[in-house]
# Entry
Amino acid sequence: MKTKILFTIRLIIAIILIQTLRFKFTAHPDSVYIFQQVGLEPYGRIGIGVLELIAGILILIPKTIWIGASLTIGVIGGAIFMHLTKLGIEINGDSGVLFTTAIVTFILAAIVLFLYKKQIPFLK
# Structure
Protein backbone atom coordinates (compact mmCIF):
# COMPACT_ATOMS: atom_id res chain seq x y z
CA MET A 1 0.00 0.00 0.00
CA LYS A 2 2.76 2.46 0.98
CA THR A 3 4.62 1.69 -2.27
CA LYS A 4 1.51 2.44 -4.35
CA ILE A 5 0.95 5.76 -2.56
CA LEU A 6 4.58 6.81 -3.04
CA PHE A 7 4.46 5.84 -6.72
CA THR A 8 1.24 7.84 -7.10
CA ILE A 9 2.88 10.91 -5.56
CA ARG A 10 5.89 10.51 -7.90
CA LEU A 11 3.54 10.10 -10.86
CA ILE A 12 1.62 13.26 -9.91
CA ILE A 13 4.90 15.22 -9.78
CA ALA A 14 5.97 13.84 -13.16
CA ILE A 15 2.60 14.65 -14.74
CA ILE A 16 2.67 18.21 -13.42
CA LEU A 17 6.21 18.75 -14.69
CA ILE A 18 5.66 17.13 -18.08
CA GLN A 19 2.23 18.60 -18.85
CA THR A 20 3.62 22.14 -18.64
CA LEU A 21 6.20 21.38 -21.32
CA ARG A 22 3.78 21.87 -24.20
CA PHE A 23 3.46 25.52 -23.14
CA LYS A 24 7.21 26.05 -22.82
CA PHE A 25 8.25 24.20 -25.98
CA THR A 26 5.53 25.67 -28.21
CA ALA A 27 6.18 29.24 -27.04
CA HIS A 28 2.66 29.66 -25.69
CA PRO A 29 2.02 33.39 -25.13
CA ASP A 30 1.57 32.93 -21.36
CA SER A 31 4.85 31.05 -21.07
CA VAL A 32 6.68 33.63 -23.19
CA TYR A 33 5.18 36.42 -21.06
CA ILE A 34 6.32 34.78 -17.81
CA PHE A 35 9.89 34.27 -19.00
CA GLN A 36 10.04 37.79 -20.49
CA GLN A 37 9.08 39.19 -17.08
CA VAL A 38 12.01 37.44 -15.40
CA GLY A 39 14.45 38.14 -18.26
CA LEU A 40 14.92 34.52 -19.32
CA GLU A 41 13.10 34.41 -22.67
CA PRO A 42 13.71 32.29 -24.79
CA TYR A 43 16.74 30.33 -23.52
CA GLY A 44 15.54 30.11 -19.91
CA ARG A 45 12.10 28.91 -21.01
CA ILE A 46 13.58 26.13 -23.12
CA GLY A 47 16.35 25.27 -20.63
CA ILE A 48 13.98 25.06 -17.69
CA GLY A 49 11.62 22.98 -19.83
CA VAL A 50 14.45 20.52 -20.50
CA LEU A 51 15.28 20.38 -16.77
CA GLU A 52 11.63 19.73 -15.93
CA LEU A 53 11.51 16.94 -18.51
CA ILE A 54 14.62 15.34 -17.03
CA ALA A 55 13.26 15.70 -13.47
CA GLY A 56 9.92 14.21 -14.51
CA ILE A 57 11.64 11.16 -15.98
CA LEU A 58 14.18 10.69 -13.17
CA ILE A 59 11.54 10.78 -10.43
CA LEU A 60 9.86 7.76 -12.04
CA ILE A 61 12.99 5.60 -12.29
CA PRO A 62 13.52 3.72 -9.01
CA LYS A 63 17.30 4.26 -8.81
CA THR A 64 17.09 7.98 -9.60
CA ILE A 65 14.08 9.03 -7.52
CA TRP A 66 16.20 11.20 -5.22
CA ILE A 67 17.85 12.96 -8.18
CA GLY A 68 14.47 13.69 -9.77
CA ALA A 69 13.05 14.96 -6.50
CA SER A 70 16.12 17.15 -5.87
CA LEU A 71 15.99 18.60 -9.38
CA THR A 72 12.27 19.24 -9.00
CA ILE A 73 12.82 21.07 -5.72
CA GLY A 74 15.50 23.23 -7.34
CA VAL A 75 13.56 24.13 -10.47
CA ILE A 76 10.23 24.63 -8.74
CA GLY A 77 11.93 26.50 -5.90
CA GLY A 78 13.19 28.93 -8.53
CA ALA A 79 9.68 29.29 -9.93
CA ILE A 80 8.27 30.01 -6.47
CA PHE A 81 11.02 32.56 -5.86
CA MET A 82 10.19 34.32 -9.15
CA HIS A 83 6.50 34.36 -8.26
CA LEU A 84 7.27 35.97 -4.91
CA THR A 85 9.79 38.51 -6.20
CA LYS A 86 8.94 39.44 -9.81
CA LEU A 87 5.78 37.82 -11.11
CA GLY A 88 3.28 37.91 -8.29
CA ILE A 89 0.90 35.17 -7.25
CA GLU A 90 -1.58 35.75 -10.06
CA ILE A 91 -0.40 35.80 -13.66
CA ASN A 92 -2.62 36.92 -16.52
CA GLY A 93 -5.79 36.32 -14.50
CA ASP A 94 -5.03 32.69 -13.60
CA SER A 95 -6.24 33.18 -10.00
CA GLY A 96 -2.90 31.89 -8.71
CA VAL A 97 -3.20 28.43 -10.27
CA LEU A 98 0.42 28.37 -11.48
CA PHE A 99 1.72 29.47 -8.09
CA THR A 100 -0.46 26.96 -6.22
CA THR A 101 0.66 24.17 -8.55
CA ALA A 102 4.29 25.13 -7.93
CA ILE A 103 3.76 25.03 -4.15
CA VAL A 104 2.04 21.63 -4.31
CA THR A 105 4.76 20.21 -6.58
CA PHE A 106 7.51 21.56 -4.30
CA ILE A 107 5.91 20.04 -1.19
CA LEU A 108 5.34 16.67 -2.87
CA ALA A 109 8.93 16.59 -4.14
CA ALA A 110 10.21 17.44 -0.66
CA ILE A 111 8.16 14.58 0.80
CA VAL A 112 9.53 12.18 -1.82
CA LEU A 113 13.10 13.31 -1.23
CA PHE A 114 12.67 12.86 2.52
CA LEU A 115 11.21 9.39 2.13
CA TYR A 116 13.94 8.30 -0.30
CA LYS A 117 16.84 9.97 1.51
CA LYS A 118 18.51 6.59 2.08
CA GLN A 119 19.11 6.40 -1.67
CA ILE A 120 21.34 9.48 -1.61
CA PRO A 121 24.86 8.05 -1.88
CA PHE A 122 26.72 10.80 -0.04
CA LEU A 123 24.34 10.60 2.96
CA LYS A 124 24.96 6.89 3.57
